[in-house]
Amino acid sequence: MRKLDEIMSFNEQFIERKEYEKYLTTRFPDKKLVIVTCMDTRLTELLPKALNLRNGDAKIIKNAGAIITAPFGNIMRSIIVALYELNAREVLIIGHHECGMASIDPEQVVEHMIERGVPDHVIQTLQHSGVDFKRWLQGFNSVQESVVNSADIVRNHPLLPPNTPVHGLIIHPETGKLELVANGYDYVKGEA
User: Options 3.30.470.20, 3.40.1050.10, 3.40.50.300, 3.20.20.20; which CATH number does 20-99+141-187 get?
Assistant: First the structure.
């Protein structure tokens, strides 16, 4: 059976058994948090459990490496929407040890694109039209520096509500142990 068929079959049973009822909540995060974290599969269940989060407690945004690079990109837009429209009050940037973005080789990714069927002329055309694959696919050397840098981008955003705590943390992908690398309360006036 193909993956999509398996998913659709399971979903039909999930609905029939009304298993969704235990997950019912609103669109507003109960703990008023917006979290940017990595898409690493080890964090899917571990991260919420390690933070004592239940369904509905936080807005969780995932990408490769929990990296924020563009102050007006999709990740930052989602943070702004969560803060202004969904009642989030604090931001957590959570990277993790052993992240694949720490060792990613942009040139190797481009090679894999070609191996998987993207024509070389498409790669060449994109590169000649200004797409810098090395920069676009660039990871980081230090997860701590990456988390601090991403937290700084959010903290210094001109549209961030004043006095919004923006925290930076690193989680261990096996144990869930958290390491605080940027305490957002140190940057705000008064308590959040």
Answer: 3.40.1050.10
